[in-house]
């Protein structure tokens, strides 16, 4: 597999509806499903769940 196939660049969007996004990479072998991370949303000024969008 090529490097881009194994660790693609993904966007994770805030579930709070603010529209704020982070850009990161994920390992497809370890996380084949959609990724959810708890990260800081500067618009709300608190930590919320961020979900991978495709």
Rounded to the nearest angstrom, the radius of gyration is 12 Å
Low-confidence stretches: none
The CATH homologous superfamily is termed Ribosomal protein L33
Largest sheet: 4 strands, antiparallel
CATH C-level name: Mainly Beta
Short description:
By secondary structure, the chain is mainly beta. It has one helix and four strands. The chain is elongated, with a radius of gyration of 12 Å.
Q: What does it look like?
A:
The protein has one domain: Ribosomal protein L33 (Rubrerythrin, domain 2), CATH 2.20.28. The chain has one helix and four strands. The chain has one helix spanning 3-6, and strands spanning 9-14, 21-25, 36-41, 46-53. The chain has a four-stranded antiparallel sheet, with no helix packed on it. The longest helix has 4 residues, at 3-6. One of its GO terms (cellular component) is ribosome. Keywords: Ribonucleoprotein, Ribosomal protein. This is Large ribosomal subunit protein bL33. Belongs to the bacterial ribosomal protein bL33 family.
Secondary-structure blueprint of this entry?
Blueprint: H1 3-6, E1 9-14, E2 21-25, E3 36-41, E4 46-53
Antiparallel strand pairs: 1-2, 1-4, 3-4
What labels describe this entry?
54 residues, mainly beta, Rubrerythrin, domain 2, four-stranded antiparallel sheet, 1 helix, 4 strands, 7% helix, 46% strand, elongated, ribosomal protein, Ribosomal_bL33_CS, Ribosomal_zn-bd, ribonucleoprotein, Ribosomal_bL33_sf
